Amino acid sequence: MLFKLAAPGLELQLGLEDLSKVRIHEEIIPELLDELVDEIKSSGAVRDSVIIDSNTLVVLDGMHRVAALRKLGCRYLPVCLVDHRNPNVRVGCWYRIIRGEVGEPKLLDLFRLPGLSVEPAPLETASRALEERRASAALLTRDACYLLKGKSSEIRESYAWAKRIERTLRKEGLRVDYENEVDAVRRARSGEVSATLMVPGVRKDEVIEAALSGNVFAHKTTRHVLSARPMHVDVLLGWLKGDRPLEELNRTLIEHLSKRGVKRLPKGTVFEGRKYEGELWIFE
C-alpha cells in the first residue's frame, strides 16, 4: 500500500521500506554523512524520500540518507519508488567545478599525476571522447580544454581518477563543488570558476550492477534526473525506528500525505540551493 502521484510520464510511489533491503551504488562522503545525521537528529524527521528503483530496490538518489538512517539505528526509510527503465528517469553526471586563486599553469601541474596524461583538445573533441569513453576526464578553463587519459578509460578507473584529482586540489586549498554538465561548462567558459573537471557518463545497467554486486562507484558519480520529484514528505524519525509493522506505517503515511496539499514548481527551479531539471512536487 503506497501513496501514488501521477507525474508527467512517470508514476511516483511514496511509502516506507525495510532499510535492510535497499542497496546503494556510490560511496559515502564521511563529512556529509556526519552533517546529515546531526540534521536528522535535530529535526526529528527525514525531509525527503530516497529515490529507489522499484524493480531492484537500488538507491538512485539519497545515498547519504540511507547511510544516516542506518547509523541512527532505523528499521525503515521513506522511499519514492520509480521504474528506472522509464525514459523519464535519466542518468546524468556531476561535473566538478574548481574555485580558488590558481593560474592555468599551476592547475595543469596539479593534473599531471603519475599515470595520467594531459593533452590539449577542442571542447567538442573532449566531449565526444568522454561520451565514447576514450578518455578518463577533461579539464576545461575559460580559454582552453585538455583531455586527461589514464592507462584505461574503464568507467570505474575514470571516477577513481576524479576522486584522486579532487583530493589533490583540496590539499592545495582549492574548493571543489558539483554542478550539472551544462552549468559547469558555462561557468568555466565565463570565468566564474577557475576550471571544470568533466567526467564520463554512467549507463543505467552499470548503476544497477554496481549496487547489486557491492562494487560501488566513487562518490558523486551519477546525477539522476526525474521528470518530477516529490519534496518535503517529512517522515518522523520515530516511525522509522519503531517496531510497528511496515503495512501499518504505510497506512499512517498515506493518511499523513493525503491531508497535505502539493505545490508544483516547473523544471529548472532552484530549490534549497539545488537546481532541478524536472518538476518539483512539494508537500505543504
Determine the CATH superfamily of the largest domain. Conserved hypothetical protein from pyrococcus furiosus pfu- 392566-001, ParB domain
| Whole-number count of domains | 2
Mean pLDDT comes to 96
> Structural class of the secondary structure composition?
alpha+beta
User: What's the SSE pattern?
Assistant: EEHEEEHEEEHEHEEHEHEHEEEHHEEEE
Poorly predicted tracts of residues: none
- Name of the top-level CATH class of the largest domain: Alpha Beta
Biggest sheet features:
6 strands, antiparallel
How would you describe the overall organization of this protein?
Helices cover 33% and strands 30% of the residues. It has nine helices and 20 strands. The chain has helices spanning 30-43, 63-71, 104-111, 123-131, 155-171, 181-190, 204-213, 237-241, 246-258; strands at 3-7, 10-18, 45-46, 50-53, 59-61, 76-82, 89-92, 95-99, 117-120, 137-140, 145-149, 175-179, 195-198, 223-226, 228-231, 235-236, 262-265, 270-271, 274-275, 279-283. A six-stranded antiparallel beta sheet has the order 9-11-10-13-8-12, with helices on both faces. A five-stranded mixed beta sheet has the order 1-2-6-4-5. The mean pLDDT is 96.
